[in-house]
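Page 47, continued from p. 46.
Same chain as before, 484 aa.
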Amino acid sequence: MEAINLPDPCVIVLVGPGAAGKSTWAATHFPAATIVSSDQLRALVGAGQDDITASADAFALLDTVVAQRIKRRLTTVIDTLGLDADRRRIWREAARKAGLPCVAVAFDINADEARHRNRERDKRIPAEALTAQLRSWRSVRDALAGEGFDAVLEPEPVRVVAKQFVNAVSSAQRQRADPTGLRFGLHLTEFTFPTSNAAASIRDIARAAETAGFDAIYVMDHFRQIPLIGRPWEDFLESYTTLAYLAAHTERVRLGALVTGITYRNVGHLGKIVATLDVLSGGRAVCGLGLGWWKEEHDAYGWDFPPVSDRYALLEDALQTLPRLWGPGAKPFVGQRLNLPDTSCYPRPLQDHVPIIVGGSGERTLRLAAKYADAANVFGDAANVRAKAEFLRRHSDTVELTHLSTALIADNHADLTDIVERMRPRRWSTGRYAASVNAGTVDDHIGRFRELADAGAAEAIVRLPNLTDPAPIERIGRVIQSFR
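Result:
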């Protein structure tokens, strides 16, 4: 049976009489740390799980634990009878106040079956107590749908996933039934490898990416590792030197920097670099351009970091002059910030038109992309992509939208849980880290990328956070093939 996806974090309230299978179901589908069990807490504060005299203390502790977990925005499975309407209301209201979805799972069971299971237990529920629970269960079951839960589920297979994957099952099914196309680019952002042979590692990764079906390979244009990904003293290769090396070891993929900081190089020199890359790669260069944002890096290398308005003016100048450098003639260019007396560039690129991607999601940046570029690169979920695509369509009929995101991919949910736990920063919850890297299975990502394609993305550019060798590329290769 296909598992139902629930968003992480959320609150899950198990409701049903004793012996209905609540604890077994919870243990099957959730990590032990997410389950708050009245029986376990009764054992903690009393003589054992069946110590009825400890019930009041156990429930007081349960309420405290649940409240703290909700406050910390952690997925919480409340494993108790759940037959008390007031307690259910308190849990729903706490979840709603924290902005978390709250679902109930109703464990319906035949009275005879419940009594049979109870007789098989080492520690039985007193017969009169179980009879009372069974007697009240029907009215509780009928009331659940009207109590305000975000959903009332049967005890079917479930998975807690990052919210971007909640609808992935149906989206993946749609992709299989009615496929759509999507280009894929690999974004290389880290150059620290298990062995000291970085050249061999990058070569093997690039070749694996080409075999897997990637359409392009991009590198970040920085000179030290950025704070969002690693530490400043980690190994980090210069972008265009790396692209030239990749050109020598690949045959098909397009190659570019995503995106080139407009403040890092003289624009005329940049035109020469990209033209050379295009010639040596056999016509596979892509030119990514952006404002540049990291002041500390500029300061460290002694570069000026102009105000944002000046960087926008320089970016617009570059968008106009680079095609001149790559085209025939040598007419001078005088722009807002740029003055090139001679725009000759030999050899010219092999491509008649070198594609230009502008990075950034702001309206001013998107207008520049619509006016001068071939594509705009944006971040965010499918709703954000749809909004940016609609904005671009209002300003251009031809400009495409590319989308950059991280993708941590595993074969199945159990493997994914293990990888996330191993990779998450110590102070981060598993849910927070999984959401930040779009952690999902192969099928999850087929669904996510279908939603991005439907929203208007023409190319999905992907960073793989565990890319220290070619192994993760095989998994995303299966995603790519579903879009071919």
